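Tutorial, part two.
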Amino acid sequence: MKRDLSFRWYFPHSPAAVWACLTEQEAIAEWLMKNDFKPVVGHKFNFHTKPIPKMDFDGIVYGEVLEVRPQQRLVYSWKGGPGPGVITLDTVLTWTLVAKEGGTELRLEHSGFKGFKNYLSSLFMGAGWNGRIRKRLESLLNEKAHVTT
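Running the prediction step on this input gives:
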């Protein structure tokens, strides 16, 4: 059993503004999770959130930046498990930005959910990505646009 997630969102903001929210540590912490992210290929980083023991998740997402094309594409691994060194979720997250008239289309591909337990994780994560996380990203973009105008 394998499942991939795919979403397309439109934001009335420039690719540069969207890119900043996807790549700056402080911005990522506001809409996603605390982190030590850097948009540099090969950089290993962690996202930190509340553990979910019932889902065998210790609250740390282990990632490595795989591809960076400024304002166009960002790819990184997204791994997690019940504790350090024990990985039960091994996926890849791809952000693609496409300039559209008056804004940016943001595509999110989260791929590689394998097995029944990770299939269940994908259901929860998909709802989060397309729900509260998208809304928090949109809110941050609107807030930043308001500050700069």
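The chain is about 35% helix and 40% strand. In part three we will examine how such features are distributed along the chain.
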